[in-house]
Amino acid sequence: GDLTSRVEVKGNGDIAILAQDFNRMTEQLTRNEEVRRNMVADIAHELRTPLAVILGKLESIQEGVLPSTPETILPIQDETLRLIRLVRDLQQLSLAEAGKLPMALQAVNLRQIVEKITEQFAIEFEERGLKVDVVGDAPEVIGDPDRLTQVFVNIIGNALLHTPPGGSLQVLLAETGKPVEEGEIPDESTHRLLDVFRRKGEKTQKTEAGNSGEDKNTTSSVRSDGWVRVTVVDSGEGIPEEELEHIFDRFYRVDKSRERENGGTGLGLAIAKEFIQAHGGVIQVESKKGEGSCFRISLPIK
Ligand code: ADP
């Protein structure tokens, strides 16, 4: 049916209020429908490329244009794996968006999670000549360790991919009095953080702890109403300012063609955001083109 029709009723009576509610509902439905349509179009677009590659290679092999060798089969396998990742990511994203993500909650030590991930990436870090530091500690949070691991694998993996050889990466853990809301931290704080970070690692934690402002006792005691903040800072290529607001959108990539080669589905940060929100947390990004990026994740302790 036509979702754009509106009801106009003059006055302040019950019927007029009902009409306003109806119009609001209509607008919401129209927006939802548009989101759904875009989503279907995006998915179709993302599926088309790997499927075209797979079909093209298979046809060439079948027609004898290409030999059937490990070298010709490898790209077919790669693209198939990409499709599998894509379908898995889409499923997780839709579950999380619907609030139906199964979560196995338990006490989670984020420092342990982060250290495990940096160990898993150790070879890649070394190959790229990247220095990695994990600084600070924080109380345990209640969460799903697998989901949280997935979030930090994505954030740390992205930092790795987008930091040129010789660069550095730092993961800071701290307890804070409150999560940082959007726009609450002035831009300079990150740039200060990045500056300090570039000069030398150790001081960064202090700068970061200073961000929580008046709350002087945050690091000295375990607070029931506290938050844990994990900050991932890289000295990499950064993200252009005009792209920052889209960075958590599904399928959004700053460099479309290169990102595809990296094997990313473009869903990593969208999933990270949904997973963190499912934990009652907040995820934020600040970045400066050519200087580096800073992802902050705040999770409630209880
Ligand atoms: P992808 O699967 O492409 O990595 P993500 O959702 O994880 O998708 O990230 C979205 C985009 O954000 C990436 O394609 C990249 O352009 C940009 N990005 C993410 N993290 C960083 C970072 N640390 N430095 C620079 N760019 C980044």
UniProtKB/TrEMBL annotation:
Q: Where in the cell is it found?
A: Membrane
Q: Which GO terms describe its cellular component?
A: membrane
- Where the record annotates domain Histidine kinase, the positions are 42-302
Query: By what name is this protein known?
Result: histidine kinase
- Quote the range of the complete protein represented: 209 to 510 of 510
Q: What is its EC number?
A: 2.7.13.3
UniProt keyword rRNA-binding present: no
For the HAMP domain, which residue ranges apply?
A: 1-34
Provide the species name.
Desulfosporosinus fructosivorans
Query: Highest lineage ranks of the organism?
Result: Bacteria, Bacillati, Bacillota, Clostridia, Eubacteriales
